[in-house]
Structures are given as C-alpha cells and as structure tokens.
Predict the 3D structure of the following.
Amino acid sequence: AQSVTQLDSQVPVFEEAPVELRCNYSSSVSVYLFWYVQYPNQGLQLLLKYLSGSTLVESINGFEAEFNKSQTSFHLRKPSVHISDTAEYFCAVSDRSNYQLIWGAGTKLIIKP
Amino acid sequence: DGGITQSPKYLFRKEGQNVTLSCEQNLNHDAMYWYRQDPGQGLRLIYYSQIVNDFQKGDIAEGYSVSREKKESFPLTVTSAQKNPTAFYLCASSTGVSDYGYTFGSGTRLTVV
C-alpha cells in the first residue's frame, strides 16, 4: 500500500533564508502528488500539485516542488521565506486504486525573525 | 463562490452527549471525507463517502457515525462511545477522481467539558 513520509516534524528557519520540506512516498507506480498548507486553526489549502509533464511545479507564492521518480520524492522548496509562510505543510499522494489521498504527518515551518 | 462550509467553528460537549458536526458543499463533488486532527498526528480518516447513500469506515471510525442522504451534505455525529473526542475535525470533498485533490472546509474544534 502507498505511504507518505515527511521526515521532519518541524523545520525552523530564519526569515529570508531558503527552506526545503522533504516528502517521500513508497510506491514507484504512476502517482499524483500534492502539497497542502494549513494556517493555524484553518482548513488545508492546495499549494501545488504534480499530475504529469514537467517535473518542477510552482505555486503562486514562490514555492516549488520537484517530482523525482527514481528517488520517489516530492520535496517542497522556497528560496526565501517570509514570516507569513509560518504554517504546517502536508504532502499527499493519490492512491489511484480507490481515488483517495494518502497523507504525510505534516511539517511545521517555523520562521525565526 | 463554491466551497465547503463546516459549522459550528467551535463546539463544546459535555461527557456522555452526542453532537453532530455539519458539512455542506456546493461544488457538485461526489466524494466527501471526515478527518480528525490531533497535535503531531497529521490527518486521520474517520469516514468517507464516494456516492450518495453510501459511506465507508476509515481508520478511526469507532465512536463516530455519518449519513449521506444528499450529495451536498455529509454530517458527522460524535457519539458518547468516542472516548477522547476533543480534536479538530476537518471535512473535505473531491470529484471522486484524485487528480484534482481535495477541497477542505475550515474545520470544527470540538472540546469536551
């Protein structure tokens, strides 16, 4: 069965520094991949997704993620973080056998001023 | 605008009482989901429904019940059998095909007093 691993439960980083949030999934079969963001006391919002085509996908607020099939990874990066990026980030992978999303445990991004 | 509405945002329950959390969507989505979120534990699936009048247990269904009488509505009842109901509850919906991901509501925070 498909599983998703987010290796870091928390990532502290200084404002304006780069950041990488790691996500690995278990199956090498064709998948759809997603990153969601959750601000405090809110629901999750879709940040970006990979369905097919270019392995590098971008969001409107400067995040990007690269699909790496050989390493079964979909790491999220941002070259310069802002205090407003403080949130929890969830990686998810589609299970195409039942059309459900399999979720990682989440990574809290903590921005230090 | 289309979306998912969860109500109430905050809910307090006395021990031994059943409470019902509301989830309504106007996205014309076929599938709907209920998740429970506890600190440090990510998202845990309680129940899901892929079509009206049908629903399936998720990973932590004990102490919960749902109904899906209308496409737009998927209420969750937290029964007195749920021993530790204090948590943040999230409702989501999807087209039923996973390539577009899920849309989430803003959540209900349930506290047992």
About this structure: Chain A touches chain B at residues 9, 32, 34, 36, 41-46, 49, 51, 90, 92, 94-96, 99-101, 103-106 (CB under 8 Å). Chain A has a mean pLDDT of 91. Chain A is about 0% helix and 50% strand. The longest strand of chain A covers residues 87-95.
